[in-house]
Amino acid sequence: MSALTAAAMPAAGPPAGGPAVFARAMSRGFGGRDVLSRLDLAIAPGEFVALLGRSGTGKTTLLRVLGGLDPGYEGDVLVPQRRAVVFQEPRLIPWQRVLPNVSLGLKPGAGGHGGLRQRSLEALGEVGLASHAHAWPVTLSGGEAQRVALARALVREPQLMLLDEPFGALDALTRTRMHVLLQDLCARHRPAVLLVTHDVDEAILLADRALVLTGGQITLDVPVGLGRPRDRGHREFIALRSRLLRELGVTEPDNGAGQSS
User: Fold this and answer.
1) Which domains, from first to last, does the chain contain?
2) Could you tell me which of 9, 111, 195, 259 has the fewest CB atoms within 10 Å of its CB?
3) Taking 60 as the threshold, does the pLDDT of residue 260 lie above it?
């Protein structure tokens, strides 16, 4: 990957008291086609936002711009200096054990009080993998590898976490456990979060706000006004799921809801 120039990077450090993420008239095109088109977005500090959209609508492109991984955008973008990205694949270095994978890319002084090694061990402890510090990535299950990826994000003490379908490759039971873990970590550390997902239920279960990206713009921005833990069978959950699916162009099958019992 080529180095990113400072001028092309999203500006770091939104004003104190302002949003953690601020984008105005942000556009990004590829081969003459606009993937993002004058998009506006704001995410408050500590807010968990889920981003939904059909394949190819620009969800990952938006996440990459906010993460400083794609400098070719136009418009205004402000993001915190401390950011972390978690991808669908854990992206662990196979020739490094778990502990150095957690601290990968950080300078020795980046761990603050207690040092980087201690902070990395603490992050592994937070995801329940302190005993795996010296394990090789090849010995981990899919869920364990993704927990290491979360620990690697946490050790950076991010003000913004960008999650690109991090649980998409996991089985249903492991995904449910990861949802609980992620909610606990976010409640403890309070970063702003942008979760890219294709799973409408996942968005409603985790997020404070759900967005739908269509044609390069946000066409629906709706708060998730449900208490926690959330019940998939609750009428408000069902109603919000239906609204999001309609915006995504998905028609739910008629299960005879209108029939009398």
Assistant:
1) 41-82+160-249 (3.40.50.300), 93-157 (no CATH)
2) 259
3) no
